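Q: What does the assembly look like in three dimensions?
Context provided by user:
Components: two
Sequences:
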Amino acid sequence: MAVNDRRERTRMLAMAAGIDLTDSEIAAMAELLCGLIDTIDEAAAGFGADAPEPLMRPGSSRWQ
Amino acid sequence: MAMTFDPLRASIAELGAALRERRISIRELIDEHLARLVAVNPKINAFSLPDPDGARAAAAALDAELAAGTLRSPLHGIPITVKDLFATRGQRTAAGSSILRDRVTDYDADAVANLRTKGAVILGKTAMDEFAFSPIGVNVHYGNTRNPWDLERVTGGSSAGAAAALAAGIGTGALGSDTGGSVRLPAALCGVAGFKPSYDRLPRGGAFPLAWSLDHPGVFARSVADLCAMFDAAAFPEARLGALPAVTGRELRFGILEEFCRDLDAEVGARWEGFIRAITAAGVRVETVQPNTSKLSIAASTAIMFAEAAAVHREWLKTRRADYGEGIRMRLLQGALIPASTYLRALQLRRVIAEEFEALFKTYDSLICPTNVTVAQTIASVEGPTAGRMIRNTRLAPLLGIPGLSLPIPGRGLPVGAQLMGPVAGDAKLLAAAGVIEKIIGPADSPPL
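A: Here is the predicted structure of the complete assembly.
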């Protein structure tokens, strides 16, 4: 994802959270923050962490 | 030749015997440690709040009890330190922050109260990274803590002062906390032992939170036996270890976490190889394991830690933002922006990782790796990427709530730690295994400070 896209995404996340950020704060955190979110989303998908079917099986505790 | 009794380096058992046999009084013991504090602390900046008056008053009362035949516990009269994260009645507990600079509580944290009840004497509050939200041991408000092995180098954090003071011979044990490695990493970098028990085994009440589902109070000492004594004194009765199970080296089976042994600094790698040679020569069975999920531990831990920390600090992020150091301010702001869906997926990933490790612990008594990937870096050179490497091997245990400890590996040069992790609630068995390993590798040196 382009640098500007990640900055815009960070700006939108800040707006949604009601947090005021300066342009320099957005620039400083955009890569790390968006990278972390994408890593978690990809890992969750890759390991089926939030797929409903295995979570509904007896003994699963992943909802906790 | 008789061994020289050194009250600054003696074990809890040795000090207890000396106190009971009246070879030294508690007041004399505490004065020795306070004198060491006065002499050394200006070099290492390990204390946020020394408490010589409180320590001497406690010593006098405990001396009187001992003279009357009362011995509260093995920690009766033993000098310890407490991380600035834990409330102590009538004193400032700033958690290394400017925001709480004037916060004085009228209560003790639960672990502190338990330690006092058992007769421990608190020498003072130890320095830490701001709100425990850094693994380095630096603080823009109160100055950096310096490593007793090399004053130009970091101690690791966030329980920086706890590890530095103990390594320097101030106190016989220390109370700290570990959310991503904050006991085990500074223990490793300062050459002492550190133990983070299973989640909720030591009480968190009265400790300022960093991330509530990852926060673990923990203890520092110079030996496994002293870790056990410190733990039992800080715990509520139902959580105490009791007698450790008997185990021999030939009965132990360890899994080496291969991924956590990659990309080590040369000095760490060489010490680690020597450690593995020593324990295998003594009959411990070791095999390399490659869990699929261990590489996820950093991302999952970071998402959970940052989001929970931001929730704790949400109001201050609006009203006191300028009062944070720059690094923590940016981490908290990132945490405030993590979507709920990401936080929840990180919690679910934690369960996925836990399931794989629960299965591994059916085969292995302990999973092991170096605690530190690098030796202590110079204060001037520590930056974000370096800090990220520092905690690579310590995030897993608090993420899963499993017990983990670091033992110093003897050798020349800067300290290196060996990390042992066990299954949830396997604290006593893990400490028993660590005791066996400690006997095999022998004691580590003290810094030439």
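Follow-up: Chain A touches chain B through 27 residues (CB under 8 Å).
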